[in-house]
């Protein structure tokens, strides 16, 4: 199994990041997960979920690495399992419409890495890792079912629409209950 690397690209490790990163750890296991580019004052927040580095993946020069970028030309496939030791994801708060931040903030700096996509639609980081892990373990992208956009009811009147793509597991979107609770309790957006 490759190491799943989350290059944190936000200015802080926000509460939603920790929730997604915890969900990623549950998906691939603590020993298969690296967090890079983490501010020193946030290392303790992530140590329970994976191996934490303050340095950026951009300075690590890893061999047989692949950046997961929606702008990549090639699609990740089960045959890629033996090609890559590291799958690199941008830990990015998604903008809608997407601003192609993975390409701008990560891919262009890792010229010795290969690039693959898992579809052109934007996913949360934990969904992207879930999908890549499923593919590496033998399921082709066209066999994974998705739901575009998620409507989370906050109360009888309000809801939050998350405009991203979510993998479906037993016809339910892959999103942590902890994140749903966090969004319901959040005071403002």
Q: Strands across the major sheet, in which order?
A: 3-2-1-5-4-6
Tally of discrete structural domains: 1
Strand tally: 9
Amount of helix? 10-25%
Sequence stretches where pLDDT stays below 50 over 5 or more residues: none
CATH superfamily: SPOUT methyltransferase, trefoil knot domain
Q: How are helices and strands ordered from N to C?
A: EHEHEEEHEHEEEH
* Class from secondary-structure proportions: alpha/beta
Output mean pLDDT: 91
CATH class: Alpha Beta
* Radius of gyration computed on alpha carbons: 16 Å
Architecture per CATH nomenclature, i.e. the level-2 architecture: 3-Layer(aba) Sandwich
Q: Tell me, what's the shape? A: globular
* CATH third-tier fold name: Alpha/beta knot
Helical stretch tally: 5
Distance between the termini: 37 Å
Largest sheet features: 6 strands, parallel
Q: Approximately how much beta-strand content do the residues carry?
A: 15-25%
